[in-house]
Write a structure and sequence with these properties.
InterPro entries: CDP-alcohol_PTase-I, CDP-OH_P_trans, CDP-OH_PTrfase_TM_dom, CDP_ALCOHOL_P_TRANSF_CS
Shape: globular
Pfam family, one: CDP-OH_P_transf
Strand content: under 5%
Largest sheet: none
Order of helices and strands: HHHHHHH
Number of strands: 0
Number of domains: 2
Distance between the termini: 38 Å
Organism: Sedimentibacter saalensis
Keywords: Lipid biosynthesis, Lipid metabolism, Membrane, Phospholipid biosynthesis, Phospholipid metabolism, Transferase, Transmembrane, Transmembrane helix
Radius of gyration: 17 Å
Membrane topology: Multi-pass membrane protein
Structural class: mainly alpha
Helix content: over 70%
């Protein structure tokens, strides 16, 4: 029983370990893709397992956020030098604009609820999935098209999160869309 209680946290810790190993791989190599994919899968399943097994905890949520941050930093450090030349020049402006909207959403949430909040909306999950897929698809699909699609999806999810935080009366990180408010 004790193993079941910590299964989700163990999966999250495996993401930290795989991210650390990913740091030492060649970008876009077979080893990189294996570790990148493994890390992405663990990110998708750890929270689901914790909820299904009723083993969610504040410590697990913090551990998940730390694992996400480590994975994102390592992925960015490894992929940016390799992929940055492929993206269209306007992408930086779009990313900055989306970032400002996203930071505004976080600021509104922090001011209203006196803590950092990030919502688990469907649009945020779709954005994360499409962003995760970029290293797999940029070689096969025109990166300009991928950039447009990603910016549209990320922009919609950022605006939606801002609107939800403005409209939300009681904090609910699991709100799925603006239509639930």
């Amino acid at each position: 029983m004790i193993c079941i209680k910590y299964l989700a946290n163990g999966i999250t810790i495996s993401r930290i370990i795989s991210s650390a190993f990913m740091f030492f791989t060649e970008p876009l190599s077979l080893e990189f893709y294996f570790l990148y994919t493994f890390s992405g899968i663990t990110d998708m399943v750890d929270g689901t397992i914790a909820r299904k097994m009723h083993t969610e905890s504040k410590a697990g949520a913090v551990l998940d956020s730390v694992a996400d941050l480590i994975f994102l930093l390592v992925a960015f450090i490894k992929l940016f030098p390799t992929l940055s030349h492929a993206f269209p020049p306007w992408i930086l402006s779009a990313v900055i604009l989306i970032g400002v909207v996203r930071l505004s959403a976080y600021a509104v949430g922090a001011l209203k609820f006196h803590k950092f909040i990030a919502l688990h909306t469907i649009a945020n999950k779709i954005t994360g999935f499409v962003l995760f897929c970029v290293p797999f698809i940029f070689l096969r699909i025109d990166i300009h098209l991928v950039s447009i699609i990603l910016c549209i999806i990320a922009g919609i999810s950022a605006v939606e999160e801002l609107l939800i935080n403005i409209k939300m009366v009681q904090y609910n990180p699991d709100v799925r869309s603006i239509f639930e408010i």
